[in-house]
Design a protein that fits this description.
Blueprint: E1 2-3, E2 12-15, E3 18-28, E4 36-43, E5 49-55, E6 59-62, E7 65-76, E8 79-84, E9 90-93, E10 109-115, E11 120-125, E12 129-137, E13 151-156, E14 161-165, E15 173-177, E16 182-186
Antiparallel strand pairs: 1-6, 2-3, 2-6, 3-4, 4-5, 7-8, 7-10, 8-9, 10-11, 12-13, 12-15, 13-14, 15-16
Length: 189
Amino acid sequence: MATTADFRNGMCIEFNGQLFTIVQFQHVKPGKGPAFVRTKLKNISTGRVIENTFTSGVKVNEARVEHRPHQFLYKDDLGYNLMNLETFEQFAVSENLFESPELLRDGQEVDLVYHVDSETPLLVNLPQFIVYEVTYTEPGVRGDTSSTNSLKPATIDTGATIMVPLFVNTGDKIKVDTTEKAYVERARE
């Protein structure tokens, strides 16, 4: 059993008979009344994000999960084929376990989260930052920064489209935050 004082981002809890991960939490101590914890919880099976408020100090069941390193090999009709980097066992998982499968590239190392009690895979996490090469983007027009939205679409080497600043060109390497699917910076060569 854990309490609200133990909450951390990424923690897996059992709530209303289902497994949820804590996406975001905030301890609130109002001037009047008891303290509480405002959370955003992501349902592992459906991917739906809900908001919930817990009274401070309430006990919750922490789900026993284990993070295991895997490597993405390829995609076929069975799903996404992964290889355990410790045992070299290969198996396929479905697309709904991924947050953003369009950012995967062959040979990419991923973190597979298992529910320890039932030994079932729950979700697949990509590294937070990955460097990609821009394969196509329109050239930025000089003086086009007058609008507040000075971003343009760019296709990266996996085929996904990311919004990038106007100065990014085809062939540049960029660092992408995989949780937000957003441009971070140009990659250092």
